[in-house]
Design goal:
Helices cover about 20% and strands about 25% of the residues. By secondary structure, the protein is of the alpha/beta class. Strands 1-4-3-2 form a four-stranded mixed β-sheet, covered by helices on one side. A three-stranded mixed β-sheet has the order 5-9-8.
């Protein structure tokens, strides 16, 4: 059996609806300096939800980007991942240029807009020439090097509508 046959066979199976919602609520990111990370994300306008300390070896800070249902945690004693090792965490925006201006004005070093002319190849400068949703990106990193991708989505794909 070749891989094409396998894909076709799986594609004809009828998926079943999930019976329990599974909502991504928090992503833990690794940082080397908790207070520096907290200042950075507060400076971007992210909401401080919690800052809990328990002894010298454990601290968790929870912050939420404006309008996001998902938050981030960072701190001390909460992950073994190397600081700066998380790459390409997506932040979806409806207007890439407005998001770039806002984040830049708040101190983030945001790249220019770019797109992928061919997936798997290096990005091309400038927004997607056809202005398609999901096609234009920009990026920035926190002080540890954890990187964020801004992705412009003007209209969601079917089944991915915005929750109001």
């Amino acid at each position: 059996m070749n891989s094409t046959q396998t894909i076709k066979e799986h594609a004809t199976e009828t998926p079943t609806a999930a019976t329990v919602d599974l909502k991504l609520e928090v992503v833990v990111i690794p940082v080397s300096d908790v207070d520096r990370a907290k200042r950075f994300y507060e400076g971007l306008g992210w909401r401080l939800d919690a800052d809990f300390v328990s002894g010298e070896n454990w601290r968790v800070v929870q912050m939420t980007p404006p309008g996001s249902p998902c938050s981030i945690h960072f701190g001390k004693g909460i992950t073994k991942a190397a600081p700066g090792s998380f790459q390409n965490l997506y932040l979806v925006v409806s207007d890439i240029e407005a998001a770039r201006r806002e984040l830049t004005s708040r101190g983030a070093n945001v790249s220019g807009a770019f797109h992928f002319a061919v997936f798997g190849e290096p990005p091309a400068p400038r927004p997607d020439p056809q202005g398609r949703s999901y096609g234009t990106y920009a990026s920035f990193s926190d002080p540890d090097g954890n990187s964020w991708l801004l992705q412009e989505i003007k209209e969601r794909l079917p089944g991915r509508e915005w929750d109001d």
